[in-house]
Amino acid sequence: MNKAHARWVIYLTLGFALVWMLLPFSIEWRSLRPDIASLALFYWVLALPHRVGITTAFAVGIAQDLIEGAPLGLSSPGLMLATLLLLLSYQRIRQYDLLQQSLVVLVLLLLSAGIEQWLRNGVNVPVMPLEALVGLLCSTMCWIPVRAILRQSRRYYEVY
């Protein structure tokens, strides 16, 4: 496959991750839903920092806001800052083992959620419940399988 044409895999996987947010969950389990879109974004930033960056993070954040019905711009600043931190230290984070990478992902998700919460308070939008922190832990536990699936697809389709 032509390497220039395999770029669609990045956007397809990010699209599937955003569709994951549309899956119906019961009210009791909704806070446990992992943030697969952020995990997919973080993977592609770590794997291909020359292809995926701040602009992609902005687009994913806007798409998340559209899906959730939140005011536009609540998710984007946190994702953009987390992506910037990943871009500044991706070479070091790539060398970490999976547990250390999972902890870095947890810190980035906490940072992104904290900025989103701060913005929610500023525009008088209902705040996220405290149970959302459990969802961040679920997202952290999902990092290893999401990374494995996306890595396999990147290698299969020769995305470079």
Give the SSE layout.
Blueprint lengths: L7 H13 L15 H12 L6 H15 L7 H20 L2 H25 L9 H25 L4
Helix pairs in contact: 1-2, 2-4, 2-6, 3-4, 4-5, 5-6
Comma- or semicolon-separated keywords:
single chain, 160 residues, mainly alpha, 6 helices
Give the overall average pLDDT.
92
Please state roughly what percent of the residues sit in beta strands, choosing from under 5%, 5-15%, 15-25%, 25-35%, 35-45% or over 45%: under 5%
Instruction: List unreliable stretches of 5+ residues.
Output: none
How many beta-strand segments? 0
How would you summarize what this structure contains?
The chain has 160 residues and is mainly alpha-helical. It is built from 6 helices and no strands.
Characterise this structure.
- With 160 residues, this protein is mostly helical.
- It starts with 7 loop residues before the first helix and ends with a helix.
- The mean pLDDT is 92.
- The protein has one domain (3-22, 32-156).
- Helices cover 69% and strands 0% of the residues.
- α2 (36-47) crosses α4.
- It has six helices and no strands.
- It has helices at 8-20, 36-47, 54-68, 76-95, 98-122, 132-156.
